[in-house]
Amino acid sequence: MSDTTAATAEQFAGLRVLDLRAGGEAERLAELQGRWRGLCERSFGLDGDADAAAKAIIAHVRTEGDEAIIELTERFESRRLTAADFEVPMGKARAALEALDAPTRAALEAAAERVRRFHAVQAQALVSTGQIAPPESAAGDERATEYLASRVAPLQRVAVYAPGGTAAYPSSVLHAAIPAKVVGVAEVVLLTPRPSPVVLAAAALAGVDRVFQIGGAQAIAAVAFGTATLPRVDKIVGPGNAYVTAAKRLVFGRCDIDSIAGPSEILVVADASADPALVAADLISQAEHDVQASPVLLCSDPSLPARVDAALHQQLADLPRRAIAIAALRDQGAAVIVDDRAALAREADAYAPEHLELLVDSPAELAAQIHRAGAIFVGPWTPEAAGDYTAGPSHVLPTAGGARFSSPVGCWDFVRYTSVLELGPKALRAQADAITTLARAEGLEGHARAVEQRLRTDPVNVQAKVGGAA
């Protein structure tokens, strides 16, 4: 153990405890409740420095294109590229797959197959719908028919961002690219600086069409606006650092994005039945991602935090990324104690975690009472790690409380819906009074006249006028 790591380990004295049970001293309880609300209201991606830097990078890429990418890549990554170097031939990705050791390849293939199978089922729900709605008394009269539909079609081109170098996550390539290909996206572009062989192999397995070895805010800007070398995309998905996140937010509107992604987080909900060793292991599984990760325990057993602390100390001792995990546990970790099972459900919803684990009696019953989570892992045999790799649903999930209003990446992210409306003359006439009245109530006379112009030229209407005059 290095001196730095040893010092970090010595600074971890256990999870901070927030005891929210009723009956405590009122002022102290109010303070703890305020601290818990602060954890629930966490935010990410509002970094002023990152926003300013990303804004400048985007402007540079918009005006200078490929030359800006060359300059910025050298400045931030100490890599000198030419525009011809940006794209990695897909033959290299296929070669990386062939060169993988057998166990790693088998694991990637198993994960890819399960992700593909899950999303193939999910995609079946994304169907075009249509309604032909003639009045019952006018069945068969084409003039009375109205056709109302919602038509679904895949996006044409999507970019998947995946961190490169030492932070190589081939699983993220599978979990973002495969749903896009399942629904028929014509071209999936992977952005990843310094792509490792295993990331290239994952790209080949996922059906990625093109790989570009650029990253950072400059990569986001390049595909949002397009350059001579990089194509403009319809949507960007995948997590990145604060600068990537800021850039995604700033280009939204030029293209779509999945979400404003923050550091990884887990809320382990536990009661007296929970095994503290499992609780500790699952907290560590997220804490080792990033010093900014949020590993939180929510429990109804006041004795559990101390037992989890003991298990944490034991399991951290030989963890390769222990310094990172300890920093996350120390700085963002917490053990929150509540009165009962109802409070577990209520406070889990308040936190709205990316990953929610239920290590309780009757976990499926509790899962049905919780409505705000990116993914729910039910029972002791469902570790969050299974969701990260092989379970099937995409592991690209809302963070920082985003589960209150957004969803995991899925097939729905890679399609668009178009409303289709067709009215016959009688169908329009039946709605005309309501349309013109509402248009004039809003001060939009042109809208009303657009309807009335059609009614004046309706052959039936014209014929009626002629007949009446005769």
From TrEMBL:
Entry keywords, A to Z: Amino-acid biosynthesis, Histidine biosynthesis, Metal-binding, NAD, Oxidoreductase, Zinc
Name used for this protein in its record: Histidinol dehydrogenase
Family from the record: Belongs to the histidinol dehydrogenase family.
SUPFAM superfamilies reported in the protein's UniProt record: ALDH-like (SSF53720)
Residues that hold substrate according to the record: S264, Q286, H289, H355, D388, E442, H447
GO cellular component terms, A-Z: cytosol
GO molecular function, one term: zinc ion binding
Species this chain originates from: Plesiocystis pacifica SIR-1
One BP term from GO: L-histidine biosynthetic process
Pathway terms, separated by semicolons: Amino-acid biosynthesis; L-histidine biosynthesis; L-histidine from 5-phospho-alpha-D-ribose 1-diphosphate: step 9/9
Catalytic residues in the record: E354, H355
Cofactors, names only: Zn(2+)
Entry binding sites for NAD(+): Y161, Q218, N241
Role played: Catalyzes the sequential NAD-dependent oxidations of L-histidinol to L-histidinaldehyde and then to L-histidine.
EC number(s) recorded for this UniProt protein: 1.1.1.23
Bound cofactor: record note: Binds 1 zinc ion per subunit.
Any Pfam family hit: Histidinol_dh
Classification via PROSITE patterns: HISOL_DEHYDROGENASE
Catalysis performed (reactions): L-histidinol + 2 NAD(+) + H2O = L-histidine + 2 NADH + 3 H(+)
InterPro entries given in the database record: Ald_DH/histidinol_DH (IPR016161), Histidinol_DH_CS (IPR001692), Histidinol_DH_monofunct (IPR022695), Hstdl_DH (IPR012131)
Binding site residues for Zn(2+): Q286, H289, D388, H447
